[in-house]
């Protein structure tokens, strides 16, 4: 008997869907537009959503730990969790409302397969809208047209860090752009694609990347390009619609 599973295996999305958004709005004009767009998206995708504005660095950590406790004590099965983190930042760090920094890796730890049992083997999606450095991309000119191996003496196990998806608004080392009135290109594009298109989440994120790569951003009269970065340890296809 083959141990190969079908390539189309999907996550079971019949249970509860929970979302947490932590957003520093101070000195980040346009943030409210992003929060409004995300609220619309989570409503359409049937997520129970919680928003925390202007967390300090310590509160970023505390709110993630509270979220983990809420998930583990939820009465019905959980299918999926989204965490949206929006703040000023640099590579691997977010700046709280108090100006202090918190490590992204510490925030990710709260919901991994070791620390959050209710999300063990369930998808955990992180959306990070923050700078990752000071570099700016002016663009370049282009031309031309799961295997299960379990013996009767060996219980099935799962790695600690699977079933996670980290979606950054920009690539390592680069600035992330946000319009004072319209919100961020990343959040607005992501919400538009997630609410209007169907497909598994990596297909949708490819479309987000395509649209952002084609967009022309202006910073002080200078043309800029930006694209998200997607890091995935998902084991199955994740459909939100």
UniProtKB/TrEMBL annotation:
It comes from the Eukaryota. One of its GO terms (biological process) is cell differentiation. The keyword Disulfide bond does not apply. SMART domains: CASc. GO terms for molecular function: cysteine-type endopeptidase activity. It is found in: Cytoplasm; Nucleus. Heterodimer of a large and a small subunit, both processed from the precursor; the mature active form is a p17/p10 dimer and the intermediate form a p20/p8 dimer. This is Caspase-14. It comes from Saimiri boliviensis boliviensis. The lineage of its organism: Eukaryota, Metazoa, Chordata, Craniata, Vertebrata. The gene is CASP14.
């Amino acid at each position: 008997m083959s141990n190969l599973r079908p390539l189309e295996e999907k996550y079971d999305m019949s249970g509860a869907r929970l979302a947490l958004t932590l957003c520093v709005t101070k000195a980040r004009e346009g943030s409210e537009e992003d929060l409004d767009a995300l609220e619309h998206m989570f409503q359409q995708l049937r997520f129970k959503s919680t928003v925390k504005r202007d967390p300090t660095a310590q509160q970023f950590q505390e709110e993630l730990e509270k979220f983990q406790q809420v998930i583990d004590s939820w009465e019905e099965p959980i299918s999926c969790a989204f965490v949206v983190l929006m703040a000023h930042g640099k590579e691997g760090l977010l700046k709280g409302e108090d100006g202090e920094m918190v490590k992204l890796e510490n925030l990710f730890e709260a919901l991994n397969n070791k620390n959050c049992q209710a999300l063990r083997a369930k998808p955990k999606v992180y959306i990070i809208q923050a700078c990752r450095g000071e570099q700016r991309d002016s663009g370049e000119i282009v031309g031309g047209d799961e295997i299960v191996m379990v013996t009767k003496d060996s219980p099935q196990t799962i790695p600690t860090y699977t079933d996670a998806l980290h979606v950054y608004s920009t690539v390592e080392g680069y600035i992330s752009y946000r319009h004072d009135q319209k919100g961020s290109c990343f959040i607005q594009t992501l919400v538009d694609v997630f609410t209007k298109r169907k497909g598994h989440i990596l297909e949708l994120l490819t479309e987000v990347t395509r649209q952002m790569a084609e967009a022309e951003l202006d910073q002080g009269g200078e043309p800029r390009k930006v694209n998200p970065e997607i890091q995935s340890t998902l084991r199955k296809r994740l459909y939100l619609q």
